[in-house]
């Protein structure tokens, strides 16, 4: 477990350092936040391979405290310095903590895939929507149809690979469930803005994967 910590903690740190360097070089905070979003989700995928549940949850709690402290101290501007009130930075680890507590002992693969969905699907959709999105909608925060479509496509891919890894083969019923589950998660992502999607996506992703598997 010590070896796992030696590997995983520097990976998280590197993600934040890269974002902070880019922010100081003039990149917009919307971009650097997404770098942290995507990087943290990708690193979290490896948690079950390196540490146990208790250590993973402890890491998550430490990051919640760290992010809360840096926000209050006006530090880590690459993550916190955003115009509208956004709770996504702190809700991201909380969402993964809840997902881990519910699904890790059932099947670590559920947590791993959920981390990829909140990290890659949501993160890349946000970047794509900011750059190419033209058709906006707003329930509790600004979203774009283009970004939501990419979220759906990436989530389909993650769920497909998860099922293939778990069962080796896949039939039409599973493909239908994957598409339906991806659509449901896309709706969840679209409904919750201002960072609240970071809380709900990993939880609903875990439930979706549990039902599909």
> Rg, please?
17 Å
Number of helices: 10
The domain tally reads: 1
Strand content: under 5%
Give structural notes.
Helices cover 78% and strands 3% of the residues. It is mainly alpha-helical. It has one domain. The protein has a two-stranded antiparallel ribbon. Helix 2 packs antiparallel against helix 7, helix 4 packs antiparallel against helix 6 and helix 6 runs antiparallel to helix 7. The two termini are 28 Å apart. The model has no long low-confidence stretch (mean pLDDT 93).
Keywords:
3% strand, two-stranded antiparallel ribbon, 10 helices, single chain, globular, 78% helix, 213 residues, mainly alpha
Describe, in short, the structure shown.
This protein is mainly alpha-helical and 213 residues long. It contains 10 helices and 2 strands. The protein has one domain (2-212).
SSE layout and pairing:
Elements (H helix, E strand, L loop, with lengths): L1 H23 L4 H16 L2 H4 L2 H20 L4 H4 L7 H16 L4 H25 L3 E3 L3 E3 H23 L4 H20 L5 H16 L1
Antiparallel strand pairs: 1-2
